[in-house]
Amino acid sequence: MKNNESLLKQNPFEITFETKCYERDWEYLLKTKHLDRMIRNCNTTFSFRQLIINNVEHPELVKKYAQRKVDEGIIDAFYFVDDYIDEALPLFGLQKDSFGIGYYYSCSELVGLYVSKTKYHLHFSSDAFMLNNNQGKWITDACRIMEENPRVFAANPTWNYCFDDVKEQAIGEILEKFYVGRGFSDQCYLVRTVDLKAKIYNYSHPVSKRYPKYGGELFEKKIDSYMQTMELLRLTSIYEVYIHKNFPKRKQKFYKFLVVILLRLNLYYLVRYFRIKYYSNKIKRIKII
User: Fold this and answer.
1) Rounded to an integer, what distance in angstroms lies between the CA atom of residue 263 and that of residue 34?
2) Same domain, 49 and 126
3) Do 174 and 267 reside in the same domain of the chain?
4) Strands 233-244 and 152-159
5) Lowest mean pLDDT among 28-42, 130-144, 227-241, 256-270
6) SS3 annotation, 114-129
7) Beta bridge partner(s), residue 54
8) Is the domain of 126 the same as that of 261?
9) Residue-wise pLDDT tens digits, 124-175
10) Do 52 and 157 fall into the same domain?
11) Does 272 share its domain with 146?
12) DSSP of the chain, one letter per residue?
């Protein structure tokens, strides 16, 4: 996937695109074009595109498929968490036990930030992605605002067409094409890399107790605590959407094979979301190809 020169002229910001995978979903990203679409549907160019790999049973096999994505020009590099986490944690003022039971929910994001070299850093979880929108500009619009306003700490599109939820969570301000609010999600975040490389991970705030207990003191909870404490802001696009739906956790080989086939045919998300009530009214807006 070569950078488009016309888009490059529209994007003066240095941004790393990042996603991650682990044992249960690496095949969905690396044996299909799902990863390719994740990047393409962002509708901008990136200075660097990286994949963070964690907790896989056969690293050499995953490495082979990841290298294919590099050779095809889809990503620029991939990193295994185990190769970097021990040197990364001190940078953030953390230890493995800092997360309680949430270590494995957090280490990929921290390694991604550790190796990131650009001013801005865009992360999508493996099961979150933008719909195809040739007019989408939320990334560059958000970067421009963040250049001018240090209180804006993170930005993202609206999730799963939940515009009403986003509006309710806003703090009463609209800034250009964004609602302004608080909060943080590891499904998708655009940040200044230097902000998250700082030692901001040992704050606590009562509002952050809303995060699931099974995640322990996970990455997104720690950042949310810092943002709540320092009264920092999040931008959420009024118009643009990303879709998040967990990949199935079934281990049967046939089921995984079926999902891979559906992803290859670009049908998987249509099948998954057709049953969701809020999505049924939006089906005509889906353009993944």
Assistant:
1) 7
2) yes
3) no
4) parallel
5) 256-270
6) HHCCCCEEEEECCCEE
7) none
8) no
9) 999 998 877 777 899 999 999 999 999 999 999 999 888 899 999 899 778 9
10) yes
11) no
12) -PPPHHHHHH--S-EEEEEEE-TTTHHHHHSSSHHHHHHHTT-S--SEEEEEE-S-S-HHHHHHHHHHHHHTTS-SEEEEGGGTHHHHGGGGT--GGGGGGGGGGTHHHHHHHHH--SSEEEEE-TTEEEPP-TT--HHHHHHHHHHH-TTEEEEEEEETT-HHHHHHHS-SEEETTEEEE----TTEEEEEHHHHTSS-TT---GGGGGS-GGG-S-HHHHHHHHHHHHT-EEEEEEEEEEEE-PPP----HHHHHHHHHHHHTT-HHHHHHTT-HHHHTTGGG----
Give me the amino acid identity at 225. Answer: S
Which tokens belong to 202? 């040992």
257 and 227 together in one domain = no
Q: Write down the residue that tokens 């190809």 correspond to.
A: 289
Q: Does a structural domain hold residue 8?
A: no
Look at the block and give the residue holding tokens 């044992």. 23
Least confident of 36-40, 169-173, 181-185, 248-252: 248-252
Residue 257, both tokens = 């094979």
Residue 240's CATH number: 3.90.550.10
Mark whether 176 and 257 lie in a shared domain: no
Determine the structural domain holding residue 191 and report its residue range.
Answer: 15-244
The answer to whether position 62 is within a domain reads yes
Listed in sequence order, the residues at least 6 apart from 3 whose beta carbon sits closer than 8 Å to its beta carbon are 45, 46
Residue 129 CB partners (closer than 8 Å, separation 6+): 34, 37, 38, 41, 242, 243
The pTM (predicted TM-score) of the whole model is 0.88
- Here the tokens at position 106 are 């957090």
Q: Would you call 182 exposed, middle or buried from its count of C-beta atoms within 10 A (0-12, 13-18, 19+)?
A: middle
